[in-house]
Amino acid sequence: MPEQDQLIIANKTFNSRLIVGTGKYKNLKDMIECLEESQTNMVTVAIRRLNLLDISKNANLVTAINWEKLWLLPNTAGAKTTEEAIRLAFLGRELAKRIGQVENNFVKLEVISDPKYLFPDPIGTLKAAEFLVKKGFVVLPYTNTDPMLAKHLEDIGCSTIMPLGSPIGSGQGIQNINNIKIIIENSKIPIIIDAGIGSPSEASFAMELGAEAVLINSAIAQAENSRTMASAMKLAVKAGRQGYLAGEMIPYKFAHSSSPLKGSDFLRLDKKK
Length: 273
Known about the structure:
273 residues, alpha/beta
């Protein structure tokens, strides 16, 4: 992959296009090994899961990660309302400062009021995003595959759009492909496919569609061999990106021989006597 082909979000540069989640692992050791194997540059942490009062005292998710090598992407998972999401976003920014990333204003915005299907709340997300952008946050909103909502979020200043591939943790792969294509085609900011990717082939397909990156958690954490899956996802994302940059061949309706007979000199060798 060309050296200059890097993921850029709000003037922050990342060498990896695979963002990895930190939930659902068997233990901290397994999580750390997967992060290392994936070669990710950015990890997302659910702020609601943390006790920010004792992060420096006990071995936990935050203290186990080397934040000199990895960029924190705090997320507002668990927020059911705009107000909850905003509060968690500010707590996430405070956490970033505590671990030494003073200029880190990133937040993965999630507003999910539906407990069964866990679909993002479009109105709550838009309201929270508009407020947080004005407060200087780099907002990465998790959304449905609605092209108009994506455009509104871009227009108010979000730094990426993160449409779901399929419901969170479902492993159902990339659904509603046409809408995702429209979002990618109409956007001037990076599109990151989030949620639902269950296999390396699906991660590669997301990149082949033109997504700038993917965020993966459950598919790695819940694999029989998480470390091997982390490596597979790393390679899949790279392969999908290279395939997209290479430009796929135009498909034909009928077969086209890859070895045409016309003009083949070797067929005439036996006639030269």
